[in-house]
Structure formats: C-alpha cells, structure tokens
Design brief:
Number of strands of chain A: 0
Number of helices of chain B: 16
Shape of chain A: flat
CATH architecture of the largest domain in chain B: 2-Layer Sandwich
Number of domains of chain A: 1
Strand content of chain B: 5-15%
Order of helices and strands of chain B: EHHEEHHEHHHHEHEHEHEHEEHHHH
Distance between the termini of chain B: 13 Å
Largest sheet of chain A: none
Structural class of chain A: mainly alpha
Oligomer: heterodimer
Amino acid sequence: MIALLQLAAALYLAAAVASAAGVGLGAGGAVRAGLVVLAAGWLAHAASFVALHGVEPTPQLTDLPMAVSLMAWMVVLAYLPFARRSRMAGLAMGVGPVAFLGAFYAALRIPHAASDELMGAGSWPHAHVVLASGGLALLAVAAIAGAAFLLENRRLKRKSLHPARGGPGLPSLETLDRVNAAALAVGFPLLTLGVLTGMLWVYGTGRGLWTGSAHEIWNALAWGIYAVLVVLRFAASQGARQSALSAVAGFAFLLFAAVGVGMLA
Amino acid sequence: MRLLLVGLSHRTASLELRERFAVDDAEPLLSKLRAGGEVDEAFLLSTCNRIEVLVVTRQLEAARHRLRSLFARELGGDAGAGSDLDAALYERTDARALQHLFRVASSLDSMVVGEPQILGQVKEAYRVAADAGAIGVILGRLFHRAFATAKRVRNETAVAERPVSVARVAVDMAQQIFESLEGKRALLLGAGDMGEVALQALRAQGLHEVDVANRTPERARELAARFEARAHGFDALPELLAVADVVLTSVGGGRPVLAATLVESAMRERGHRPMFVIDIGVPRNVDPAVNEIDGVYLYDLDDLDAVASANAAGRRREVELAEAIVLEEQQRFDGWMSALRAVPTIRHLRSRGEAIRESELERFARRLELSDGQREGVEALTRAIVNKLLHAPVSFLRNEVEREEGLAYLEAARVLFGLDDADAPGAESPLESDADASEEE
C-alpha cells in the first residue's frame, strides 16, 4: 500500500525531471515521456487510495497525510485533461514536483497517522477534505501557471532566447494567464465550500461554528487573502504579472495555513 | 540502371527564368517521356523555386539528351533554348542524384532552409507521377526513403524550428506572448517596407484585424487598401493603442512616435491586456522605457536581429546534423542500388551453371541409359554440386557489391565465368538481365 504511494512519488519526480529536461533542451520526446510518466504516477497514486482503504486500521481522509495525498492527486487530475493543449505539456515540470512532495510526505507519514478526534460527524469531514483538497489543488495549478508566467515574462522582457528555442517550451503568456484565471475561478469557490463544510463539521461535534483553533484562524486568513485576490483579479482588472505573483504568494500562504500549521501542531 | 536528375532551381536560375519553365500538369509530360523509351521511370517536380526531372534509365546518354531537349523545347517553348538555360541547368547522376532528392525533400536545398511546404510538394508530384504510371520499383523505393529521410530530419533536428528572418522572428515572439494571433488586432504605424513584410508574416498566422496610421493620410489609405485595413492619422493613436495587440512601427524621422506615457495610459484603457510592440524604424520609433511597462513587450530591430542571428547559428548546427542524416540514408539506398546491380550478374551466373549442368546431364543420360529414378537422383546430385560451387562466389558478390570495389568484383566475375560470351550456354542479353533484376527486387 505504502509501496504504491512511494511508487507514485517516484514517478511524479521522474516526470518532473523528464519534463524539465525536455523544456530546457527543447526535446519534445522527453516532455511527452514526462506526461506519460506523470499519468502513470497518477494511476499508481489512485491505486494507493484503493489499497489503503483495505488496510486495518484504515487511514482516514481527515488525517493530514491522507488529505495532503488527496490534494497532490487532485493537482495532477486537474492538470492532465489539458496537458496536451497549447504547449501545456511543459507545465508538468511544475505539477510533478508539487505532486511528488504531496505523495512523498503522505508515504512518510501515513503509517504513523492518527485518526482525527473530530471524526464521527456525519459526511461533513469527508466533504470538507474533498472540497478543500480540490480547492487547494486548483489554486496550486494557478500558482504553477503563475510561476511559469513570471519565468517566461522575465525572459521575454530581458529578450533572452529560450535555451532551446524551437523545442516544446512553455505555453504562451496569454495561455498561462488564462490557466491562472480559470484555476482561480473554480478553485476559490471550492475552497470556500471547503471552509463552510469544515465549519459544519465542527458544528456537528457540538463545539459551535468557530472554536478558535490555529487551523481555523490561519485558514480563515488564507480564505480572506484569496477573496481579496479574486476581487483584484476579476473586478479590478489586475495585470497578468500581478495576478501571477498573487497566485504564487497566495498559494504559499494557503499551503502553510492548510498544511503547515497542521504539521507544526 | 542509372539515376539521372536534370533541373534548375533558385540557386541557378532567376525567378523570371523559373517562371518560363514552370509546369502546370506533369502527367502528359511524364507519359511522353516514358513513351520515348530512353527512360524507364520518371518524376517531375515543379515549384516556384525549382523545376526538376528525375529518371531511371538504362541509357544514360540518351536520357540526358532527352531531358535537355525536354527543357529546351517542350518546357520553355520558343524561349526555352539559349545560353540562359544552359547555364541554369544542372545534372546529377546516381548517388549525387539521390542525395539531391533527399536534400530537397528534407528542405535543405530550399530558399528558406527548413520550410515545411517542399515535402508536401514533393509528395504531390510523386502522386502525379504514380498516377501517370511513371513510378516503378526503383523510384517507388527511392521516394519511400526520401520521405522517411525528411521525417527523420524533421524529428531528429530542429532545422525547421528556428526562424532566421526578422519577420519570422517577430511572428515567433508574438506566439510566445499570445495563445493565437487569430482574433488579435494589429496597428501598423508608418509606411516602411520592413513593417509591411512583418505585417504580412503576422497576417499569414491569422492576424486579420489591421489598422494603419501614417502622417500622410493618402499613404495610410493606400496601405490600408492593400491590407484590407482601416486608415487613420497619428491623432488617433491613443484610441488605436487601446485596442491594438500587436503594434508595428516603421516611421521615418528622428523623434519617437510612441512615448512611455502614451503607452501606459493605453494599457490602463485596455485593462492591462498584453501588447507586443515591434519597432522596425531606424532611428527607433518607440521610447525604450516602454519595455518597462507591465504587459508591454518591446522588440526593436536590433533585438529581432539578435534573435535571428542566434537562430541562424543554431540552425547551422542543425543543418549539419540534417546533412549527416541525409548522407546516412543516401548510403543506405546506394547500397540497395548496388545490390540491385549485382542481381543480373548473379542470375547470369546461376543460369550459366544450370545450362552447363543440363547440357552435360543430357549428354551423359543418353549414354548411360538411366531409369527415371536414377535420372532424378543424378539431377538432384548435379544441382547440389552446382549450387555448392556457386554459393561462395554468389555470397561474396552480394556482400562486396555494396562496397566501393564491388563493381570491380562484378566485372571480374563476368570475365572469369565468361558471362559476356554470347555463344556460351545460358547467355542473356544485358537488357533482359536488367529487366529481370527489377522484377527480382
């Protein structure tokens, strides 16, 4: 079971390396191979969920390592359907490392993970984890597209040549900006639903809607920051570079709030 | 069987001369060529940059004469003959002919090396020749290899992927900024030739909405008519910049036409959507500070030229790789052609052996009065002896013929076994042998 997770992590890492080498050297074959390996990693990762379901005691989705693993799996799930469009294959060099880190952390921690004490509040815990992981995954995709935008923008502004011009390369700036916007437009509502279901989960345990835990405070902050970013992006016509920067910075904060705080606790 | 290619191209003939020899319908010409008997297989390629005829022939001199007369009399009409044509026509035979074809199909002999259209044109010309029944075993196989070579060059090198002209670099840069140029809007400022060339290259990629602005309204209208665009004066610049995705400037005069403040306010107007500014004016038409504005990508002539030069250097390396692939494929096909040349000698050798065996067996069978069973046994025995005796020289010829000295061995075999002696048993005419060779392949 854990071996499947380890296999998935290894495949994600291999995909990232192949994709980065392909983009850097202009080798389309390596980029395509990276995509295939990423898809294989995703399948192995999916198989690990099925396998873990049959283990006693079954690791719960509400355990942090399982939730991180689910988020990593969803990042790849959100990316793969679009991977073959408009030179998007090169983005696997950003998706691969994120997925690797999630799967690798889960592979290390799942054997020691303890079930959350708040379990037993109906289906809210699962809804919370699935929705929040989905939101996090999409905001991760937005951040990856944002980081790629910043790299390409810097290169075009400095008029430096692509190291292997003519190769597969990264998507155009416009494509990266659209990916960023689309991922934010879907990811933020999912995150909002994740926050709401989390509150209902806590409420179902009889503690009220707000307990004031560190997890709740940091995530409320992260949600607020994202709300501002969404307004700036869609209502105030923020420029593409600012949007890319916001996506990277916002996701870094959200990752700390949703995962980092849990790890430190 | 020999390969002969005769033609003229952008390297040897002016556009005017090439236009005179261009062929609209190759099929009747190919049929006519084959009907003359000098050529066995034929192919004709006519594009704006080259007119070439490739044939397989057993009579090289006659075929050469026929092809030269085809150019002088049939293709060029009255204006065909003359010193212009003689100077422009080139010939390639055998290995050099097939190397030439492989280079043409792989776009290494094109005016713009790496351009993709030529392979489609060669394929179409091949289809026409095949429909005319002018493609046989040798050209069929040759073109199969030529297409495979072109595919290898495209897949294994980046020869086609590095734009080397300023206009193509501008398109390439635009494609790194925009997902697609379709639906995008261009603004051409000024009436310089370079600006027009770049705009044409952008239009070829789907950019159709064009505004033209010039200091002189008449010139603006003239340009606008050519590009099906709208004409404006410079006073409309703030509004035009707010909607233009690609701005091309090619204005004469010393003062910048586009100041940073003007572009900055246009960017606010357009909601910070990206803008690609190509400054082809000399001196420059756009304030360099424009490149500092978020979402604006300013490339002047030096920037585009630097990219083009770097690409050209990279392309030279890729061309070397591509040439190596062509050479490898040429040698492979040459080996096959050489092996084909050995087939008549080998067949001849076998038929000589068989003829001797049969005549000797006939002579002794009458004297020994063999029964049917005994005769069958002796037949098998003698056939085995002949086969074993010929096995070593035949294998040797097959293996050696692909090497440089292979033809000398073939010649030696013909002398040693008396294969050219017309009175000897099993003698064949050279024409029969060649025909058999093609069939055997």
